Amino acid sequence: MPDTNGRSPGGAKPRSVALIGPQGAGKSALFDALLAAAGAPPRRGGPRGMGTELRLAHASHNGDTWSLLDCPGSVEFAHDAACAAAVCDLAVVVTEPAPGRAAVLGPVFRMLEERGTPTIVFVNKIDQLNGRVRDTLAAMQAQTNRKLVLRQVPIREGEQVTGYVDVVSERAYRYRRGAASERIALPDGIRAREAEARAELLEALADHDDALLEKVLEDLVPEPGEIYRPLHTAELSGAVVSVLLGAAEHNNGIQRLWKALRHDVPAPEETAARRGIAPEGAPLAQVFRTVHAGHAGRLSWARVWRGPVKDGAQLDGHRVGGIHRFPNGEAQKVPEAQAGEIVALGRMEGVTTGTTLGQAEALDFPKPAEPIHSLAVVVEDRKDEVRLSGALQRLAEEDPSLTVVLDPESGQTVLHGQGELHLRAALDRLAAASGVKLRTVRPQVPYRETIRHAVTQHGRLKRQTGGHGQFADVKIRIEPRGRGEGFAFAEEVVGGAVPRRFIPAVGEAAEEATKKGPLGHPVVDVAVTLLDGGFHSVDSSDMAFATATRMAMQEGLAKAEPVLLEPVHAVTVTVPAEYTPNAQRLLTGRRGQILGYAAKEGWEGWDCVEALVPAAELQDLVIELRSQTQGLGSYTHRFDHLAEARHR
Ligand SMILES: Nc1nc2c(ncn2[C@@H]2O[C@H](COP(=O)(O)OP(=O)(O)OP(=O)(O)O)[C@@H](O)[C@H]2O)c(=O)[nH]1
Ligand SMILES: [Mg+2]
């Protein structure tokens, strides 16, 4: 019998699901519980650490084939979640029941809405539910434009949630620790609550389905099939998001979630259609992650949009050197991959993360957020420098939210990324893969200097060496210019005191001398005027005039009251409005000048705070900003101007 997706059991096409959500919500616990329920050996090892990398595993459940992605939850790894959302058929947002934790869902929901990824919510840690589930739902609803519908009503004994009633089938189940739930009779006193949830569900769906609307209006009781079909459609279009309950750690609600996935997750061709990908045509795949996996070499994780992708075949001129699946977490080589599967392709040399394989036109791929945190990398052993640069290049290839820049001014190799954890995790991977020992230091701030006063300075070179000597004499005026006006050179020589042909050499030497001023930084915004000088018909040369000018500049700049200039950036901090005062305090505490704040357009309940902040104060701003805003605060910045540094 075909199911509600029109597929026959056992004949369903491979589908993929990404577990996404805030840090510590229990995504990895749920990932392991889903795999265990699909027959994987129980997970070994101690407690899970904070997730810093995507995980991929394959499972077969009830004859359906699944690719599962477990995303790290920290905002510093948000790009991984966005990539997963771009390639999967459906996202399961894993969250905790406390309404106070709902705010952290805002950015997650927004990302999924922007990508159009169908979504269901799994409220995990239901064993920790304190208040009412409808309060949890209301708090979550405030964070999304999509309509949340409760699919399960908790059954409680005292404070403890001991089971649930399924809102569509109206069946009741009691949780059992570490095992599938058992069906029980509908407990007394739950009917009213269940009927209410059911009415809400039907009402939400009737908005999108005329047949169901008619039944609801006529007070008829729809069959489950008449609910599942519009539910599937409404979830696919993003109109509705189902909310399920459970406790991954205790294997509660896991079979129920599997069943929901079977019904709700769109077929691969539905996802392809949503993404505007034609169903017929040559094999098509999209690489969304690159890993260097020890002996397996370089692996390109790819979603197959059109199959079959065959081992050994050419994809856009790249030979597929192995196709790997991870049934229940263990690696396995397979000869080919079908549409809907997420697999690891081996040895795709030259293929970077985000590459579309199989057609010229690139498929849409998430752009990483702008880097927000930087560290300079120093090798312990200079011999490792070449190896380091290769390893850094691979790192940036693996992770587009990371960039490596060799700063020509400081000579530092600077890693830019999404936060301290993100950069540390990347460097740990680098150290493990390359064996290079390294440490990190703060990136240098590009200070400048200028002068406060005008001076007139004499410079004279007179040298007699063997045959002919060197002679040049210059008198220059050095004066400050307005901020941002740069360097200027002029001459006011009269009577040929310095012959024309030597004047360009004076100008070049004067400018050259501004590369490093008396305070050790480039000198900006000065004007140099050649006033007078002297020459010798045989001993004068461009070189002699350049030397005399350099001497005059060095001495003159030092006398002109040099001052340090620091770069000041225009900063826009984005925070939920309740944290706006915190953000302002934070910026003021970092010598920031607040320019104002306003509601962020299109982000209900969020503010933008604009400020001018010295670059030196931005170095670990994001760490403090996040720690004060439940991890929600973020900022962008760009160079604005140079200002005299008073506090250094
Ligand atoms: N009480 C309770 N605790 C749970 C449940 N599921 C997970 N936890 C605990 O929650 C903590 C975080 O679980 P993880 O699975 O690592 O969370 P995560 O979402 O993968 O976290 P990141 O990968 O860092 O984003 C762990 O200490 C788990 O033991 C649950 O159902 N009930
Ligand atoms: Mg995790």
UniProtKB/TrEMBL annotation:
This is Elongation factor G. Residues 444-561 form the Translation elongation factor EFG/EF2 domain. It comes from Paracraurococcus lichenis. Transmembrane segments: none annotated. Keywords: Elongation factor, GTP-binding, Nucleotide-binding, Protein biosynthesis. Pfam families: EFG_C (PF00679), EFG_III (PF14492), EFG_IV (PF03764), GTP_EFTU (PF00009). NCBIfam families: PRK12740.1-3. Residues 563-646 form the Elongation factor EFG domain. Catalyzes the GTP-dependent ribosomal translocation step during translation elongation. During this step, the ribosome changes from the pre-translocational (PRE) to the post-translocational (POST) state as the newly formed A-site-bound peptidyl-tRNA and P-site-bound deacylated tRNA move to the P and E sites, respectively. Catalyzes the coordinated movement of the two tRNA molecules, the mRNA and conformational changes in the ribosome. GO terms for molecular function: translation elongation factor activity. SMART domains: EFG_C, EFG_IV. InterPro entries: EFG_II, EFG_III/V, EFG_IV, EFG_V, EFG_V-like, P-loop_NTPase, Ribosomal_Su5_D2-typ_SF, Ribsml_uS5_D2-typ_fold_subgr.
